[in-house]
Each structure stands twice: as C-alpha cells, then as structure tokens.
Amino acid sequence: MAPALSRVKREQLRKRRNNLLRRHNEFWLLYGMKSWLIMESPDGQIFTYHSHPDTPPPSGEDMKTRPKSTVVRTPRYYSSMTSAQPVGKEFPVLCAPVRQYNRWEALGQLLENSLRMFS
C-alpha cells in the first residue's frame, strides 16, 4: 500500500485528477473521440469517466479485430518523459500482440531490447 499522502499532495492529486477528467471530456467535445477512463486512488477509491455512458468500452477481442490498429501505452513509454517519482510500484511488463511478419518481429525485438535498458 502506498504511504499516506500529505494535505498538499492530496490537493495536488485532486487537481490533477480533475484536470485529467476534464481533458478526457474535451477530447469528446472538440474531436469527437470516445474515451473510457478508470483510476484507482491509493486508498482504493475508484474514479471513472465515460464519454458515452451507454456504450461499453471495447473489449480486448474487439480491439484486435478493428480495421485500425490499437495504440497501447504503458508507464514505460512515458518514463523518460516525466520528472514525477513513482509511488514504489514496478512498471507492468509490456505485452505486445504476436507479430505476423519478420519486419514486425525485428522491430519488436528492438523495442524489447531498448526497454530492457531502462529497467
């Protein structure tokens, strides 16, 4: 469990959370992008945002069968871009779909090797 947050950190978390939820709403209003967001705070409270409450988020199978590829981001993608300090949890292991072509396999190996350098 994460350590208890000070009053200042709790306020900062509240502001960042509300800003993130507002940004998700702006993506829908400005660009027509549907979004689903679920966040769990260190104390276990869940926050959700659904731009379309009556539309369920796409399943893993649905994301695999869509005509456009699915863009997946993990904390490792942003680790070199942020100055924020993690709260003591390890990054999840990157799990990429199976590659169908040799070029994709080579690219996957290159990405995997570069990710190992950061861990």
Automatic annotation (TrEMBL):
Region annotation Disordered: where it falls in the sequence: 48-77
GO molecular function: DNA binding; protein dimerization activity
GO biological process, one term: positive regulation of transcription by RNA polymerase II
Entry protein name: MADS-box domain-containing protein
Classification of source organism: Eukaryota, Fungi, Dikarya, Ascomycota, Pezizomycotina
